[in-house]
Amino acid sequence: MAEHKGKYRTIYIVTAALMVAMIGGYALAATTVTTLNPQQSSNVTNTPAPGGFTGIGSVGSEQLVILSAGMVAAVTAGTQTSGSVGLSGVPTALAVCAASPCTAQSFRDASQGAQTTGDYGEQIVVNVIQPATGGTSLGFDFSLTIAASTGAVVAQGYLATGVSTAGTSETIPVFIFVDLGTTTAPVINSLTVVFNQCSSATTCP
After folding, report:
1. What is the SS3 assignment for 164?
2. pLDDT score of 52
3. Is 106 left (phi over 0), alpha (psi -120 to 50) or beta?
4. Is 0.85 surpassed by the pTM of this model?
């Protein structure tokens, strides 16, 4: 089983460097730069290029956000297996996209439990590929490690691509957010995202 998981394992290191001024030497791979205050901005890099995990999707960007009531009420990204300490759970399937452009879908992580409206959160955008009709839904899990000025937060979740009703595959923007447990804007020093393809669309690992 370890050999099977290792075959599909891809690691993304996403570094959110907070700078007073944008200086040379940073490879901007994300599609957005989010202003946190008048003197700070978030610069995201994805490694390795082009930032995708084969057949499933790619990391698009990350943002520091304030959790709204709608975000807190969003569906959980899968269900953590009771009593488990590692990546083990049941994926939540993405809603079917019939035609492009697909509606964005939002999820809370599976491991944190309740989240609080008004707290700051870290959000990542993953562009997930949903196979064309007749294809096979792919399950995947993710682990996020966020190093912030307020401390480290680790979160995880489980999703499945689902299958489109279209004749071609569709790309769905998926927003995943994690409560950082503070109402004061933290400095995000680094964000590490690890993806694994699951053994099926209904079981991880």
Report:
1. coil
2. 56
3. beta
4. no
